[in-house]
């Protein structure tokens, strides 16, 4: 089953295969003869007590004295220590006093979560001129005192201009520093004079299934700005295809994430941002399946966007196309060009080679290559298994910086 994700379209309903659930029958534990005898004695005693109470009420017997005698008799049975009783349920208190850690997290991180308006233009036939309109709204997180704001790429995609709405509802202009569609991350910047709070970034590698998390953002737009939802981490490293060929390792949570939450913060109980909320599964009958991009995945992307206005992903230095066998099945990726000076050229790869595997993983699409490289950085060495002249051979290739494919060399 291929899950589809709802970024900004609440009514999007993809098809899915129905899941049938079976209600398990109650499992009954066999009772011993001893248990039945014990139960009979207790039942008889209770019946005698009830009849006694009836007669005492009728004949005016002192009930208080009788109650003390009954309590003494019941205590002699030591019912509290009986193996036939149900286990004691303990209540775990998550808060202290009149507030919980959710309150503390909301107060600490909430002011650093902002609204984002994606603005474009539309032609007004009445005035015969173009006017600025808001074409989309989302959330963002202020991550530095100098005004950097991280959000999702799909929140600002196609924008002619962007504004940021601070927690006090003040709307200020923002500059798009850089965007990255593959990771769905964008970096904006506002004037540092508007920064009143900064969200601390945590370590998403330490996130565990079952720990409590808080999602903060603006579901359905600015009308519900600063909405706080609470839940747990349902899964970590959930690799799902976001629709661009790259499988991003996501944090899954049941904290409510709705359209407009995109770009907001997923925060741990210490008040640290551990993820950027990005998507939810939206289909009939599905609830509590939201996803956030782990902050450790986001950090290097932010650094690249700050320095280069784009993300410098590692490359092999080749152009490829799918290679089919006689039955019409894809058996690998055909190398149509090797770029001079790249890791591929230095390793000895040639045009006409067929890539079968990279790092031991079968490769049949360009997306397969992208997915593998997304787990590497520039300078890493990968192993590529090549089919050449009917024989296979492994090559060690050092990944390099992006290649200018517009050259004719």
TrEMBL record:
Q: Which residues form the PDZ domain?
A: 305-390
Query: What is the top-level taxon of the source organism?
Result: Bacteria
BP terms from Gene Ontology: proteolysis
Kindly state which keywords UniProt assigns to this record, in alphabetical order.
Answer: Hydrolase, Membrane, Protease, Transmembrane, Transmembrane helix
Q: Which residue ranges run through the membrane?
A: 36-61
The record ties this protein, via Pfam families, to: PDZ_2 (PF13180), Trypsin_2 (PF13365)
Gene3D superfamilies in the cross-refs = 2.30.42.10, Trypsin-like serine proteases
- Molecular function terms, GO-annotated: peptidase activity
**UniProt xrefs under PANTHER family:** PEPTIDASE S12 (PTHR43343), PROTEASE DO-LIKE 8, CHLOROPLASTIC (PTHR43343:SF3)
What does the sequence similarity comment in the record state about its family? Belongs to the peptidase S1C family.
Specify the protein name.
Protease
The beginning of the lineage is: Bacteria, Bacillati, Bacillota, Bacillota incertae sedis, Caldicellulosiruptorales
């Amino acid at each position: 089953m291929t899950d589809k994700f709802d970024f900004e379209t609440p009514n999007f309903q993809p098809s899915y295969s129905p899941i049938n659930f079976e209600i398990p029958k109650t499992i009954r534990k066999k009772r011993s003869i001893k248990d039945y005898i014990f139960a009979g004695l207790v039942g008889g005693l209770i019946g005698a007590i009830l009849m006694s109470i009836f007669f005492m009420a009728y004949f005016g017997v002192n009930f208080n004295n009788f109650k003390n005698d009954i309590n003494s008799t019941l205590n002699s049975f030591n019912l509290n220590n009986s193996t036939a009783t149900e286990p004691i349920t303990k209540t775990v208190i998550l808060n202290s006093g009149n507030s919980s850690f959710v309150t503390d997290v909301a107060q600490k991180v909430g002011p650093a979560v902002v609204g984002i308006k994606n603005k474009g233009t539309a032609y007004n036939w009445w005035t015969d001129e173009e006017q600025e309109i808001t074409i989309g709204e989302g959330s963002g997180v202020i991550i530095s005192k100098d005004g950097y704001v991280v959000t999702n790429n799909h929140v600002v995609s196609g924008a002619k201009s962007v504004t940021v709405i601070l927690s006090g509802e003040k709307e200020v202009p923002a500059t798009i520093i850089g965007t990255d569609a593959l990771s769905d991350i964008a970096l904006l910047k506002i004037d540092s004079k508007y920064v009143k709070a900064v969200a601390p970034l945590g370590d998403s590698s330490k996130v565990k299934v079952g720990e409590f998390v808080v999602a903060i953002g603006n579901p359905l737009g600015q009308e519900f700005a600063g909405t706080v939802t609470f839940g747990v981490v349902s899964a970590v490293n959930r690799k799902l295809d976001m629709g661009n060929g790259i499988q991003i390792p996501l944090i899954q949570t049941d904290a409510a994430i709705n359209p407009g939450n995109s770009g907001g913060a997923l925060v741990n109980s210490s008040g640290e941002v551990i993820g950027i909320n990005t998507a939810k599964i939206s289909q009939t009958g599905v609830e509590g399946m939201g996803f956030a991009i782990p902050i450790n995945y986001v950090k290097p992307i932010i650094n690249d966007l700050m320095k280069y206005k784009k993300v410098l992903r590692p490359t092999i230095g080749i152009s490829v196309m799918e290679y089919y066998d006689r039955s019409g099945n894809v058996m690998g990726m055909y190398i149509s060009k090797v770029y001079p000076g790249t890791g591929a050229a230095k390793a000895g790869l040639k045009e006409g080679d067929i890539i079968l595997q990279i790092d031991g993983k079968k490769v049949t699409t360009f997306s397969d290559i992208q997915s593998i490289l997304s787990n590497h950085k520039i300078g890493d060495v990968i192993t590529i298994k090549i089919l050449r002249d009917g024989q296979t051979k492994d090559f060690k290739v050092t990944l390099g910086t992006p290649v200018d494919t517009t050259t004719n060399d």
